[in-house]
Amino acid sequence: MAGKVFSRNAVAQHASVGDLWVIIDARVFDLSSFASAHPGGLGVLADPEIAGQDATASFFALHRAEVLRRYAHLQIGTQIPPPLRIETHVGSLSAVPYAEPTWLSPGYHSPYYKAHHRRFQAAIRKFVEEIVYPDAQVCERGGDKPSQEVLDEMARLNIIAMRVGPGKHLEGRVLMDGIISLEQFDAFHELIITQEFSRIHARGYGDGLGLPPVINFAQPALRDRIVEDTLSGKKPICLAVTEAFAGSDVQGVRCRATKVEGGWRVNGAKKWITNSMWAHYFTTACKADNGEIVVLVIERGEGVRTTPIKTSYSSSAAGTGYVHLDNVFVPQGHQLGAGHPGLHIILHNFNHERWVLASASIAGQRIIFEECFKWVTQREVFGRVLSSQPVVRQKLAAMISRIESCQSWLENITFQMTRMSAKEQAQHLAGQVAFLKMHATRGAQVTAADSVQIFGGRGLTQTDTPAEDVLGDLGVRQALRNMPPQVRL
Ligand code: HEM
Predict the structure, then answer these.
(1) Same domain, yes or no, for 321 and 359?
(2) Same domain for 167 and 258?
(3) Same-domain status, 331 and 437
(4) Is residue 339 domain-resident?
(5) Most Cβ neighbours (<10 Å): which of 45, 112, 258, 331?
């Protein structure tokens, strides 16, 4: 691939080139065999303004750069002399302003990040973009479980373990082939992993919780077995709390656990359980006969059945489902934290989960901003580039302000996490984390809505809506034209 070089005029005469070829970003693609399968149709490719021409501008008006990587096998040569190539930065830092947090931007300083954090970020970025991203795209489209080879590689580098955060479960593990030591690993490394994994553009892929309650409250033998099974990527786990009736009201769950000889019999159903379709272990909140909440680790087996639920944020790659529990026997040793109130066990990890969700949301918004910024500088409407519109620039300004303020707040909280004990964190950070999550996710809704406006029809998959701003502006301009000249206040 790309072994041959072509001068623009020589391409058509080259013996190995089929009838239909184009130049995109200085690369020559032979589309003869692909054209009839092209999702955008054969006609557009055969158009005399496209076929046999440099189609770079038309291509980038309709596709993401990633399409070229997926179809790299169609490339038969490179254009000479090479023009300025398009920057797609896979595995490295983006040069787009505000596309990276300040600590990764040239010229900035940070009190939080050390050289080992930077080393770690570079390695995780490369891994995510080269290994995880392609798999996540395929799985998200097809609604599949992350592929076992990717999980195996994540397990080998102990990424699955690091995603759970600092703690005893990391003891004895070599992190990222040893580029950082166990002593160095802290909440900032976890923040880096969380934010870098948001770059896969597939919200549901590899989602799911359930292990922290096991780490904190299971009996040692059970804990060690489950930690090993899940962190090796072999047997996933999920947190089964919500129900059709109860939503996330833990106290209101109806899934019944009845005490029997040697353990419990469980009957009921859980709903919206992320990762349940792929899970082997289910950390399940149940109501005992005395009305108290008990948390049981249930293993997939007799009486356990899962059926998929499609959510609006993901295809079934998130593995979201119903969990039907019919007369399932659970041994006594599978009860978590016997003696602790079940509610406390479930709520114990909520602060940390909220911090993870806020981190991911902020990183996701940054990616949205980067895409919007690229689009407004390349997209021309009525002969003018989109960024020339003040209303568009205002949206971008608001996005940057939200993202930068949230990231600074997040890093402050993360620093506190590296200094405070678990007890101090529960005491001092619960409120801060709750506010940050509220602020970040509300901001995310505005950022998402504004980005759809900026992208217009391209921001939607099933419908095509002219941007509201454009419609609003059209209406006001028409009203201004119709304003009677004699009207005064
Ligand atoms: C190497 C060359 C090309 C490849 C591999 C390719 C591939 C694709 C793919 C995979 C899609 C589906 C949407 C997506 O994943 O983004 C698509 C859509 C489309 N393509 Fe291409 N394409 C190529 C060149 C072109 C060119 C030169 C044009 C000419 C203008 C074109 C016009 C379109 C159109 C109109 C759509 C539909 C877009 C939509 O529905 O929003 N493509 N193409």
Answers:
(1) no
(2) no
(3) no
(4) yes
(5) 45
Is residue 256 located within the same domain as residue 309? yes
pLDDT at 139: 85
pLDDT of residue 394: 94
Per DSSP bridges, beta strands 75-80 and 237-240 are unpaired
Closest atom of ligand 1 to 61 CA is 30
* Domain total in the chain: 4
Nearest Cα neighbor of 56 from 21, 22, 8 is 22
Q: Could you tell me if 357 and 467 lie in one domain? A: yes
Give DSSP secondary structure letters for 68-110.
HHHTGGGEEEEEES--PPP---SSS---STTSS-GGGSTT---
What is the structure's pLDDT at 189? 98
Domain limits at 48?
4-80
21 lines ligand 1 (CB under 6 A): no
How far away, in angstroms, is 51 Cα from ligand 1 center?
13
Instruction: Give me the sign of the Cα torsion angle 398, 403, 408, 412.
Output: positive
Rounded to the nearest angstrom, the distance between the alpha carbon of 173 and the centre of ligand 1 is 45
Taking the C-alpha atoms of residue 260 and residue 428, their distance in angstroms, rounded to an integer, is: 41
Q: Which residues of the chain have pLDDT under 70?
A: 1-18, 83-85, 87-91, 204, 206-208, 247, 312-317, 457-474
Residue 75 CA: nearest ligand 1 atom is: 1
Residue 343 and residue 354 in one domain = no
Which residue, 347, 362, 387, sits at the end of a domain?
Answer: 347
- Residue 40, in any domain of the structure: yes
The per-residue DSSP string of 380-395 comes to EETTEEGGG-HHHHHH
Interface ipTM: 0.93
pLDDT value at residue 79: 81
What pLDDT sits at residue 315? 61
Residue 246 lies in a domain: yes
Centre of ligand 1 to C-alpha 45, Å, is 9
- What is the predicted pLDDT for the residue at 87? 67
What is the number of the ligand 1 atom nearest to the C-alpha of 71? 5
pLDDT at 311: 74
CA of 111 to the centre of ligand 1 (A): 45
Is residue 285, in this structure, part of any structural domain at all? yes
Question: Is there an atom of ligand 1 within 6 Å of 39 CB?
Answer: yes
Phi, psi of 162 (to 5 degrees): -70, -30
Q: Is the CB–ligand 1 distance for residue 67 below 6 Å?
A: yes
Mutation test of ligand 1: which of 24, 30, 62 has the most ligand atoms closer than 8 Å to its C-beta? 62
pLDDT digits (tens, 9 = 90+) for 248-281: 778 889 999 999 999 999 999 999 898 899 899 9
Name the residue of 25, 28, 45, 63 whose CB sits within 8 Å of the most ligand 1 atoms, as the mutation to test its pocket.
63
